[in-house]
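User: histidine kinase, Colwellia hornerae:
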Amino acid sequence: MNADSDDLMVPINSIPFSVIQLDHQGIITGCNGWAERFSGYCLAEIKGQPIEILLPDKFTDAHVKFRDNYQRGSDVMSGVRNVVLLSKSKELLNCTIKISEVADGYIAYLMDSLLKISNDDKTINEQAYLPHNIESLTLSKHTHKILNSIEEAFWEWNIMEGTLLYSAQVMAMLGYHAESFLGPLSFCEKSLKQEDLASLNRQAKAHCLGEIPCIDLTLSITTEQGATKWLTVFGKIMEYKGELAYKMFGSVKDITAQHQLVEKLKERNNYLLLAESLNKSGHWRLDCIENTLYWSTELYKIHGVDPTNYRPKVNTALDFYLVEEQAKVRNYVDNAIANKQGFYFKSAIKNQQGKKIKVECVGEVELNTAGDVVGIFGVFKDITQSETIFEKLKLLAMVNYTIKVPVFFIDDKDNVVYQDLTPNTADSSSVLFNYINFSITDYLAFKRKAKACGQLKETHISFDQYNSVFDLSVTYEADEGIFIWIVENVTEQFRKDQQQLISNRLALLGNTFGNVSHDINNVLGVALGATEMLEIKFAQGERDISTYIERVKNAIDKGKSVTERLLAFTRKPTIKMVRFDPIQDIIDNQYLFKQLLLSTIDFRINTNEVCCEIKFPQGEFINILLNLVLNSQDAIRERGLIGQIEISANLNKEQNLEIHVKDSGVGIEQSNLTKVFDPFYSSKSVNKGNGIGLANVYSTIYKHNGHIQVEGHGSLGGAHFTLVFKCRVLKNPPIKAPIATKSQLNMKGKRVLILDDEISIAEFVSLYLENEGVKTQHTDNKVDLINILATEQPFDIFITDMILPDISGREAAELVKAKFPDIRIFSISGYIAEEDKQWNYPVLRKPFNSKELANFLIENN
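Assistant: Predicted structure for histidine kinase:
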């Protein structure tokens, strides 16, 4: 029920806030519809009642005392206070109130409730009736952080709750203190003209219904001080609850200066003097009644025509624009007349001499007293020079990029001064935060790094646990004070690469396991046979059994080598760039190459004593060679089972490292050489390959500044691949550490505690150390370990297994460190996860012999 305006002392129904009218005794005499919805009472229910009907019981006395003050004419009414009201449904509502005195009483202006308070809230007290500042309402920490970290005017509309959060910059534009403020929708309505408010409401409704992609309009406001400003408002829904729009986020830009320029030009009769004072800009006027067009002198210069011979007309003026721009410019003019709204755009023309000129144009409609459009007045400016600067910056930033990606030009004060979006994102907001989902903290960190080093590049970076992945480049141009952000969403390609990496490694593992199992069985056969021979010879009384013991040890060493190579291969390769000796890496992995190849293929390595280091992901280096070698084997099998594969290395005349992979297979036809690195291209027989391997090799090589070349037929008859890496040539090979001898252990008199769930290993370590003069104690379980620690005997060193049935190596180390804080800790393990970066103690791999144990203790002592 709305209030009856005949009963009210002033027309309060037009006020966009909750308003209650009182007489001098504090009796309610009227209210508007906003107050009815706010309190839950209709006018008939509260009219004639004291204002205390809307107050909780415990606040009544405090308010009566306050009312006595303002009845005596106290100046307390001039302030704005936070108060707690009681709705008809007995709900406590927190709001702000301002009281104004009128001829027949008072008017109380209430801000809508922004915070529901439960009846048992113990924090409410009579201090709610003391004066407070209206800007002190609570902001969410997240929004507060965003709005105060970016020096732009932003706002956030909670559609469900009907509240608007204004940044400090917006509040300053409206004429208030530059502090963030949370208020109802009606707060800004008093600053807008009715027609502008109607346009804003229409666009908001159309955007919520999905009819338009965003809110984007220009309107005028009246500030708190009565000044007029012109603003461009942009808004876009950023959050949904179910299918309903929940939050809208937007920005505000003050274009008063540009608009005032147009206004001055309209007000002054001498257009020419003001236009000529502008730098490479002129003004124009379209008379919509007479359909005539006026140009200032500067516009003739920009278009390259003589004002004595050329008369501008609407149609002929459009002919100066590039063909693809003409329809767009015509639409700007037609929409301005139809919607009675100004416009702004950038475009390009060709002047009379055929020179391309980049221009910007701002137009404002002229209305008669009846509200009809009678003309359009505007400013036209040559921006070729400034746009050329941005294009140069853009080209500079696009170095090493082969595809078009979004580019943002943001100045030192975080204002977007220019942006270039791809066609796929052309409908999106130009706000950087709408494209890449990083935080303000990340944004500021990237700015600091780019400013410090000039340019910052990050590949495969994610801010949401790899739901989306980006390649990001930030370049700082100090002369212009511009940050150039280049952002490419590579999520889809990243996922494909990860899946293909897994697929390739599984395929290689399938080829590897058959040969590895054969080798392990051979090793076990040798060890088992030698052990049985030991039993027979010992039973026969033979004492010289050292030959058979050596056979067992050799078999175990071979088995250890097989498992180490297999573990190294199955681990995910690191993408960390490191310096390493590639030739030594090939030699160390030659066993793996041989395991993958048929026994009928002659595999050779010829390094020509090359000694150098390269900077490359070490795990990927061997994978690339494995891929090429397996391709060579497939090429040989196209001819038969017998063939030859050779890996060789040399330094070229530029002192770069060249690694060659040659084979005697079928080779590659000349017409196919340009296709071999294309994804999904394969010349192999059906079911022999999917064409992904060489594409991944090519991508990995070039991503890390290497090169790959291919010849269809090399010196062995088949294909010849050449990998080229920048390298650092070493004059002499790295000197390997000398092998430690038994006398270097030097641990005599030390006390060592040993823990291993394999008691035979614990006994072996204990026996060896006892033989070196070390005092030891060993166990294979947690209970005995705790019992040993409970004794008073001290220990200098603790050697522990990493994985035990009843305790982990980490837990065991913590128990021992608690008793002996200064004890040295070593560990032994058959396997430790590569990703376990928290283990800070040296690890000796199982199995090991006495020499390896001694070297390990010496190197880490």
